[in-house]
Amino acid sequence: MLKTDVTWPESFRYQTNTEWEPVGFFSETLCNATSFDLMLGFFSSSAINVLSYGFASFIYNGGKMRMIINDILSSDDISAISMAHDGNDLPFFDLRNLEQLSYTLNKRDKHFFECLAWLIRNDCIEIKIVRMVNGSGIAHTKCGTFSDGINRIGFEGSVNFSLSAFMHNKESLGVYCDWNGPADVGRINGIQKSFDRAFNGLDKDIEFVQAVDLKGYTHFQFKSKGLDELLDDELDLIENAEKQDIPETIKAALNQTKTKVERAIEKIKGVKQAKESEPRFPYPTGPRPYQQHAFENWKENQQGLFAMATGTGKTLTSLNCLLEIYKRKGYYKAIILVPTLTLVDQWEEECKKFHFGHIVKVYSKNKEWKSELDAIRLQEDFNFSDKEPSYIIIATYASFARDSIFKDLISISNKINKKLLLIADEAHNMGSPRILNRLSGVKYKRRIGLSATPERQFNDMGNNALRKFFGCEDLEGYTFEFSMQEAIDKGYLCRYFYYPHLVRLTDEEMSEYMKISIQLAKFYNYDNDSFPGSGDILMRLLLKRKRIVHKAKNKESIFESIIRDWYNAKGSLKYTLVYVPEGSRPDDESADLYDSEESIPGDDYTDSLIDTYTNMVQAISPTTTVKKFISGTGERKQILEDFATGKLEVLTSMKCLDEGVDVPRSELAIFCASTGNPRQFIQRRGRILRNHPDKKRAVIHDLVVVPEISSVSENFNIERSLLASELKRVRDFALMSENADFAYEELKSVLDYYDLSLF
Asked: How distant is the alpha carbon of residue 660 from its chain centre?
């Protein structure tokens, strides 16, 4: 403040070569003012930098400035300026020819202009150039006013804005302060009135001179610096000036300004740090249009299912909704449910990218989760501050399904039922029997379900319950949908080539297959070509059939051929994913809900199967690095990082690459595990289609098992129906590929035999 933060001489007069230097007056007053009106005689380019000391601080205060400058330059003066070299002291400062002048500016001059440019860009300065109407004499007034919004001061005197005036001449300056009584107020009003008359064109003795387009020129010529940069530059200038051969009185005056500049820098740093810790979208471009569209669809009811293709950023989309709540309400509260332990850690990382803090992970790895939840409960029940507490709780579905943990999660506080957002990742997991009976106990009103495939196979009851829970029961579709085709067309997922390969069963496999088919015939409804119901016996028979298809021996030779051809063509197997056949539990619904160890129960045959495929890769090229990615695999994060860099070339897996694993660098995928589960094959395709700067197209090879059934067999219609289900995947893959005709030609004989259509 001008009255309290500026040290004033008793006489309120400033004089060169004394303790009260005019330089000190301007620099310290600028540091404490919010407005500055300046009317002066003439000044040189080398002296205008005097205003550099404190100019950035003035801007930091939100300062606005008006300036009247005298026109005194002759044609000879202008010629001298145009011929000057860097480092020369210029006799005059000419706003009519900034471009020529800019070639001769020193570091301090440039700082002044950068400050000037900042004021111009932000509409915080107005400049008028004047001359005498009769052409004789000069407008030599040197006066002005400062204000901090509370107090005003005025000044006038003999001081010109020239280097010699400030540093060498015996010059003086009188200052008038409104807190010193009516006499000083009258003098301030007089100075202000004189300035306003001239600035508004009411002084008949002077006229305005047309100047260069300052706004346009400064935008072009001078770097657009931030306020923090300007203050840093100002501090640097003051420190350099203190090292120069200048009077000690001036050094002392500048030291006062230095303290205020340092204080402003520290405040900006504090504000900057606070701002940096504020929740915000992790990328400068903000959410993608469709991600923002999802929020717009959701915000009215604040419940919804987002059916979004794998790879389109479901996590970012839901966290953006949480961010929008924070922007409007000033807090964020969320419970996030995920299927696997790995996803708990991945969601934590994504939350941190948004600068969300206070994250509690409810899973087996965190032994302190209960006490951390209790702390949140106390904070909610006994919050004595005006600010709402913010936090995020991430838990697995397996934890959510347990009685004790469920009670802890849904009873944090009754105060937050309308405030907390429940996010269900891979929301189809909530349709499992273990979760469905929990839904009625969830009182949190804000809800988002995320899945590329919200619908569960053969589970209408579960699907209906999910739609109701997420507020979609009255909608034909979902709250928001973003299909894979749309994502590919708009460039959010990469394009791909698709190559299906027909696989025949061995005689032994075919014999076993037919035995099961005969048993299945007892359950088959020939009227509508389907299996009605879902009894235990029927499901066991279907599962046995799936196992034969999954483990078909002839897949191995076809797989080996694909790998060998790719290696011979590319010279490398880098960025290859292999989904090997599953032995014990191929794609059955009970595998939706992972247990706390994320393990999929296997058997010796299953373990041998993945080893077989892994070894085949190694046999093609002994130098190729290949790794199994299965339940129990340690250092998963490092494995995925090595795969992304090419250090690890091939990953073989069963189900562990289905949900929540990001492998955007993958270019080749080989699906050896036959599946009729749409969720499974959609998830897998989404993994391979994620964009990467070094990837133009993806390639997918798909091994399709087709049993040879006689057209006169009583089981022909059954097999036709089952094959039609299997070909749903093929049709879906082919239609979006770059080579759809290839799939048709490859399968034409089978399609004709069973009278099926691919398209």
From this structure: 19
In this predicted model, what pLDDT tens digit does every residue of 280-297 receive, in sequence order? 999 989 999 999 999 999
Question: Considering the domain boundaries, does residue 759 fall inside one?
Answer: no
User: With contact defined as beta carbons under 8 Å apart, do 178 and 188 qualify?
Assistant: yes
- Give yes or no for a contact between 666 and 701, defined as CB atoms under 8 angstroms apart: no
Do 289 and 313 meet the contact criterion of CB atoms below 8 Å apart?
A: no
Element (H, E) at 501: strand 495-503
Q: 257-263, long-range: CB within 8 Å, 24+ apart, which pairs?
A: 257/24, 257/27, 257/28, 257/30, 257/31, 257/53, 257/54, 257/57, 260/5, 260/28, 260/31, 260/32, 260/54, 260/57, 261/31, 261/54, 261/56, 261/57, 261/231, 261/234, 261/235, 262/235
Assess whether 173 and 235 both reside in one domain. yes
What span, in angstroms and rounded, lies between the C-alpha atoms of 613 and 633? 17
505 domain-assigned = yes
pLDDT at 666 over 70: yes
* Rounded distance between C-alpha atoms, residue 289 and residue 308, angstroms: 14
Instruction: Spell out the residues 6+ positions from residue 725 whose beta carbon is closer than 8 angstroms to its own.
Output: 676
Return d(Cα 726, Cα 691) in angstroms, integer. Answer: 28
- pLDDT band at 532, cuts 50/70/90? low
Residues 731 and 632 in one domain: yes
Strands 391-396 and 333-338: parallel
Helices (H), 551-635: 555-570, 604-620
Q: Residue 450's beta-bridge partner residues?
A: 306
Same domain, 501 and 361: no
> Cα–Cα distance between 239 and 247 in angstroms, integer?
15
**Whole-angstrom distance, CA of residue 737 vs CA of residue 742:** 10
Same domain, 339 and 378: yes
Domain that includes residue 670, residue range: 495-754
- HSE toward the beta carbon, residue 1, CA cutoff 13 A: 6
The DSSP code for 696 is S
Return the CATH number at 356.
3.40.50.300
**463 and 528 co-located in one domain:** no
Write down the H helix ranges in 402-459: 403-410, 433-436
pLDDT in tens, 88-114: 444 444 555 555 545 545 565 677 777
Residue 200 lies in a domain: yes
Residue 570 lies in a domain: yes
Give the CATH number, domain containing residue 174: 3.30.870.10
Residues 483, 513 within the same domain: no
Q: Quote the pTM value.
A: 0.61
Q: Contact 453/678 with Cβ under 8 angstroms?
A: yes
Query: Is there a single domain that holds both residue 339 and residue 463?
Result: yes
Residue 237 and residue 166 in one domain: yes
